[in-house]
């Protein structure tokens, strides 16, 4: 919190004039993170309307992983209930749910007739695992440049999307 305050030119106590505690500050950041992610995923889903399932799946994966690469610190906090328990903050919970509904929208369209919850978990595990490996794991260490990380993500997501959609084509 001291570093954030220093960067924006206020005292480290200034945020507490607007928020009761540290978790409330993090909840606001988490809310904004999920809202941004939901918008990105919704844009990616626009490809579904154009009848381009592979491109829509790829765009959705790139939206998720791209968010993690652009905002690694916030991405980590968004999925750490020990730092910020979104279930205690209705706006944060709603924003996370909105992002998840975009994933369900894509999966329901691409895999009509399959169990959407199970299919969404498969897609989510893929993109979240890839994002985590790129920002905190060996994939990030072997590709320190964000451009290299994006290219590696694109390659992995393309193979995954083709595999997941091969029975649809």
Task: Describe the overall structure.
- With 169 residues, the protein is mainly alpha-helical.
- 75% of the residues lie in helices and 0% in strands.
- It has eight helices and no strands.
- α6 (116-136) packs antiparallel against α8.
- The longest helix is centred in the first third of the chain and has 28 residues, at 22-49.
CATH class call: Mainly Alpha
The H/E string reads HHHHHHHH
Output the structural class.
mainly alpha
CATH architecture: Orthogonal Bundle
Classify the beta-strand content into a percent band.
Answer: under 5%
Mean pLDDT: 90
In the predicted model, the low-confidence regions spanning at least 5 consecutive residues are none
Tell me the distance between the termini: 50 Å
- Main sheet characteristics: none
> What is the approximate shape?
globular
CATH superfamily: Tetracycline Repressor, domain 2
CATH topology: Tetracycline Repressor, domain 2
Compute the number of strand runs.
Answer: 0
Radius of gyration over C-alpha positions, nearest whole angstrom = 17 Å
């Amino acid at each position: 919190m001291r570093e954030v305050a220093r960067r924006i030119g206020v005292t480290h106590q200034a945020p507490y004039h607007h928020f009761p505690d540290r978790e409330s500050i993090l909840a606001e950041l988490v809310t904004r993170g999920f809202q941004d992610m939901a918008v990105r995923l919704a844009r990616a889903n626009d490809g579904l309307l154009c009848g381009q399932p592979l491109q829509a799946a790829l765009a959705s994966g790139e939206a998720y992983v791209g968010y993690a690469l652009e905002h690694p610190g916030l991405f980590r906090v968004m999925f750490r209930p020990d730092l910020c328990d979104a279930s205690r903050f209705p706006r944060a919970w709603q924003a996370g749910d909105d992002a998840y509904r975009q994933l369900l929208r894509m999966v329901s369209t691409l895999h009509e007739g399959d169990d959407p919850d199970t299919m969404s978990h498969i897609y989510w595990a893929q993109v979240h695992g890839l994002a985590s490996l790129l920002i905190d794991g060996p994939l990030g260490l072997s590709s320190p440049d964000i451009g290299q990380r994006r290219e590696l993500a694109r390659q992995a997501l393309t193979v995954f999307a083709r595999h997941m959609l091969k029975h649809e084509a």
